[in-house]
Amino acid sequence: MQTYPTGYAESHHIAEQIFREILPRHGMAVREEQIALCHEVLDTLYNKEISLCEAGVGTGKTLAYLVGCILWQMNRPERMKLPIVISTSSVALQDAILTEYLPDLSAVLLDEGIITAPITAVVRKGKERFVCDARLAERASLVQPSRKRQINSLNIAAHILDMDHIPELSRYDRCRICVPQSCPRDCFMRLDCRYQQYLRDSMKPDIQICNHNYLLADASHRLEDRPLLLRSYQALVVDEAHKLPDAARQMYTETLSSRAMDELCLLLQQAHYKDFARQLRTAFLTLSFSCTQGFSKLRRKVSEPFVLTPFRRAALIDCIALLQNAGGLPDVPRYLLNRLGEAESLLRLFLLEVPTRILYIDYDADGQPTFCAASSRVPQLLRSALWNTREPAILTSGTLAAAGDFSHTEQLLGLTTYRPLRHFRADSPFNYKKKCLLYFPPRTKTRMDNRRMAEEIVRLVGACHGHALVLFTSSVIAEIVRGGLNAVAQGQFEAGHSQGFNTVQIMVYIVLPQAYRSVIPTLLGQCITTIKDSSYLANVAVIELMSRVKKILSAANMYNGTGQINVSDVFILFGVAFVIYFIINFILSCTVRYLQKRSKRNKQVTVELLTTE
């Protein structure tokens, strides 16, 4: 006879009661997929297993795993109660769980007498996201009284610890007031520090919420016996689990950019090692030069595999020797020694060409290199970091299975050989065929299949009311304009705010003139493409140039005196259309080339003036 853990049957019974009786009384609909997912979460937690749960859009998976975790934690023995960690990919979902889902669910369960105390939760983030009171006071004393917008943001920072919730805080101020990498023990505000109080308070809540990168960083600390970032937990929920492999690849990729090299030299200089910093900067410049030959005038970011040449080998040896000597310098801050050690170990990977690493160089638009060493064992690292702990884990998302098969996700997450491993699928309750604009029916492998597909596409074209080309072109142009605006550096906005400009003045006098130069050639290029694409409209009886040519050609036998269409008529009519298309596109192409040359010439003049100054 099978035995169940303590509280197993009661938790399942209360879950049914919550979703079928209690939540509907508060305006929520009963969804069978949501109830089934909650039971799957409870089974996984009680059996201490790992479950891959694919839940379609509208299933209500967030509420399902929250109810399951709360009921499981409620029936745990008091001595075994530890927090539950919920890891997500987006800040929006973290805020929604903290400010919407949990408060509403806690209020409902308190009213019904299911829980006796409110559910507590905290969002855990890196220290660079929080305000340092000492650095804030120092920064506020340096701001001029005329910069009212900046002063207002700093005043708000005095009351809000999380910088993500401080409006209009510039990137420069964020770097100047954030918690440093290493807090000095003799800080005069340490006893009243809000960040230290936040760390103490974050040890108490029932649920800890973080992003995937923070979860992986905590797992790395546990493996290396370093101070924990998260309090020890008894269960893990990974929402948006399809993005965990990407976060792992980013986490397990070591990088060293030209900017990071400059920062190391600057920190050494600030630590009163100017001569050593000068030597290290020279070695770094030599290494960068050995990797940037032929990449000085890039227009976009590119990557290339790393090839160890004799020149690069000599430059790497010099850099590693200097970084190794830096470890023996006296009175160097600990965090700086750690950064120097990390740079040395990364460059040593490039020198030794370690086979377990994928070595490549990223070049930015200015041709500056970033040395990247990606791990080729990400699934194995994920397994040792997260799954070998034998704590129950629920991984949920809407895109974990491909045609009902979880094998690809298991391979990416390092769960291929993990047993026991549970699988769960809940289809979306939405009726996509009625509610979406374009619906592709299931493939039935019949002769009528293509006909059904064509009918759906005709339905989409009909919904556009004959403006499909207009809608497509509008979306492309909007994306071009958006890209041009994003190409303007964030520092331009911050510089405008620092000079007292408002948002409209910054857009009119600073941003738009810069975006105009980069957008106009691309816009004209899109106009050329649209003019050429408009010829396709003749196939659906839209009156344009090619359609008019075909109409005249079909009536050619009425006026040429022969009673039939001559080959010369075809060449003449389509030749005229060719000349018209050529004239329009040639003029636009010349305009594009002229604007590109002028923009390039203006940029060169600006660089020469800055160099002269």
Write the layout of secondary structure elements.
Blueprint: H1 8-25, H2 32-47, E1 50-55, H3 61-74, E2 84-88, H4 91-111, E3 121-123, H5 133-142, H6 148-157, H7 171-177, H8 194-201, E4 207-211, H9 212-223, E5 235-239, H10 244-251, E6 253-257, H11 258-270, H12 274-291, E7 302-305, H13 310-326, H14 334-352, E8 357-363, E9 369-375, H15 378-387, E10 393-397, H16 407-413, E11 421-426, H17 432-435, H18 449-463, H19 468-487, H20 490-498, H21 503-533, H22 545-554, H23 567-612
Helix pairs in contact: 1-2, 1-3, 2-3, 3-4, 9-10, 11-12, 12-13, 13-14, 19-21, 20-21, 21-23, 22-23
Name its key features.
alpha/beta, 4-stranded antiparallel β-sheet, 613 residues
Your description of this structure?
- With 613 residues, the chain is an alpha/beta fold.
- It is built from 23 helices and eleven strands.
- A seven-stranded parallel β-sheet has the order 3-4-2-5-10-1-11. A four-stranded antiparallel β-sheet has the order 6-9-8-7.
- β8 and β9 (369-375) form a beta hairpin.
- α20 packs antiparallel against α21 (503-533) and α21 packs antiparallel against α23 (567-612).
- Mean pLDDT is 81; it is low at 607-611.
Report the C-alpha radius of gyration, rounded: 31 Å
Low-confidence segments, given as residue ranges, are 607-611
Number of separate strands:
11
Roughly how much helix do the residues carry, as a percent range? 55-70%
Oligomer: single chain
- Strand order of the biggest β-sheet: 3-4-2-5-10-1-11
Largest sheet: 7 strands, parallel
Structural class: alpha/beta
**How many angstroms separate the termini?**
87 Å
Q: Percent of residues in beta strands?
A: 5-15%
- Number of helix segments? 23
Question: Please, what is the average pLDDT?
Answer: 81
